[in-house]
TrEMBL record:
RNaseP catalyzes the removal of the 5'-leader sequence from pre-tRNA to produce the mature 5'-terminus. It can also cleave other RNA substrates such as 4.5S RNA. The protein component plays an auxiliary but essential role in vivo by binding to the 5'-leader sequence and broadening the substrate specificity of the ribozyme. InterPro entries: Ribosomal_Su5_D2-typ_SF, Ribsml_uS5_D2-typ_fold_subgr, RNase_P, RNase_P_CS. It catalyses: Endonucleolytic cleavage of RNA, removing 5'-extranucleotides from tRNA precursor. Consists of a catalytic RNA component (M1 or rnpB) and a protein subunit. Its EC number is 3.1.26.5. Keywords: Endonuclease, Hydrolase, Nuclease, RNA-binding, tRNA processing. This is Ribonuclease P protein component.
């Protein structure tokens, strides 16, 4: 994932948490904030409660890969995904289903894209 697509600075995270809106399901919480940028930016938060560094990095890798596959459906907002307890036990497919559900709740994922409507 390119650096321009990441939320890295603490100031940006705090702005999203304090001003943005949140949505959640049992496995993920998503905070989102509208911005003027022409693309989305993603921040990930995985607590030490979910496992050691290897497990946390595995969860983040899977999340980044899932987001990359959903790129054309994401709106141009900044959003932060927080993984909750239990994510570490999910299979890839279960993680994808849960992530898609919470992104739709947060209105960050939109089904119809321009390229699909043309076909």
């Amino acid at each position: 994932m390119k650096k321009t697509y990441r939320v890295k600075r603490d100031k940006d995270f705090q702005a999203i948490f304090n001003v943005g809106r949140s949505s959640a399901n049992r496995r993920f919480v998503v905070y989102s904030l509208k911005t003027e940028l022409p693309h989305y930016r993603l921040g990930l938060s995985v607590s030490k409660k979910l496992g050691n560094a290897v497990m946390r990095n595995k969860i983040k890798r899977r999340l980044r890969h899932l987001i990359k596959g959903m790129e054309e459906h994401l709106v141009t907002e900044d959003f932060v995904i927080i993984a909750r307890k239990g994510v570490e036990k999910l299979s890839y497919e279960e993680m994808e289903t849960n992530l898609l559900h919470v992104l739709k709740l947060a209105k960050v994922y939109q089904e119809g894209s321009e390229s699909e409507e043309e076909n």
